[in-house]
Write a structure and sequence with these properties.
By secondary structure, the chain is mainly β. It has one domain. The chain is about 0% helix and about 50% strand. The chain is built from no helices and three strands. The protein has a three-stranded antiparallel beta sheet, with no helix packed on it. β2 and β3 form a beta hairpin. It is elongated, with a radius of gyration of 12 Å. It starts with a strand and ends with a strand. The mean pLDDT is about 90.
């Protein structure tokens, strides 16, 4: 079964960012399958120095 992996940026870790994804700190990774099933993969947090 084919899938696409997507990344959704967030500024607070809970809601979708309205800004550019490169300006966000949190990322939610999902796999979306051709039968429209989806699977959560992981949350990533970007720690800036």
């Amino acid at each position: 079964m084919r899938k696409i992996r997507i990344c959704i940026g967030s500024n607070d870790g809970e809601t979708v960012a309205k800004s550019h994804m490169g300006d966000t700190r949190y990322f939610h990774i999902y796999d979306i399958f051709e039968n429209l099933d989806n699977r959560f993969i992981e949350n990533l947090t970007l720690y800036l120095k």
